[in-house]
Amino acid sequence: MRSILLHVENTPAFEDRFQYALDLARHFRGHLSCFQGISMEAMVSADFAGVGTGMVLDSLREAADEHRAKVEAALGQEDVPWDWETAYGREVANLQRRAALSDVVVMGPLGWGKDGRGASPVVAELVLAVETPILFVPQGCSSFDATHPALVAWNGSREAGNALRFAVPLLREANAVYLASVEEPSKEGRVELPDTDGAAYLSRHGISSTIVELDHSDGTVAYTLVRAAKLRDCGLMVMGAYGHSRLAELLLGGVTRSMLAEPTIPLLLAH
């Protein structure tokens, strides 16, 4: 993971995500590309509210410039190569363009105008629009430790396989990798790959894993996965993102959406 794209937002959760991305870049001797979006959606909302778009644009630009100056000052004190782009327009489309030549996109739980709860619609839409994995870093996670145990949520699907492949660089140094499956009803059209296939794939990359079967009779699948990760002191969870083209809040399957709504540890997502 040498090309790391960081989604920059002026929100309370950004500082932790920023420090995590810096650790990631140092660990992989990578390049950090900072992307700051100024969304046109805010200006459309202002028009409906009777506020001039010019006033809103000036306000957004001023706030963005102040935040950029602050983050660039911090970057100047770090030993990580970086570049910066500020772009106007639809944020997901701009991120999609930058993600095409990135190894991972580091994002967080707060989108513009969000109150900190619920899955960010930007993350929800982007993860289904790109082939690049999304590393979702929650507030409170400010450092990356490659040796922490990791849990891979496995359900035999194509999406889970994609997430596992993308996660290999992050799993190589983990002192334990758990391939965890939760019994769910089989879905029509889903490719079913046994967990032993996932373990065999990891072994070819020199990664040992432990297959774990989880019972969720006393909770949801999302709760069961989070609890299993906490019990094993995991610093990363890997899972496939599921969904089809609908509104952003409805883009993700129930388990993925629940994981994004109240994240507790970094989550690598791939579709």
UniProtKB/TrEMBL annotation:
<protein>
    <submittedName>
        <fullName>Universal stress protein</fullName>
    </submittedName>
</protein>
<feature type="domain" description="UspA">
    <location>
        <begin position="150"/>
        <end position="270"/>
    </location>
</feature>
<dbReference type="Pfam" id="PF00582">
    <property type="entry name" value="Usp"/>
</dbReference>
<dbReference type="InterPro" id="IPR006016">
    <property type="entry name" value="UspA"/>
</dbReference>
<comment type="similarity">
    <text>Belongs to the universal stress protein A family.</text>
</comment>
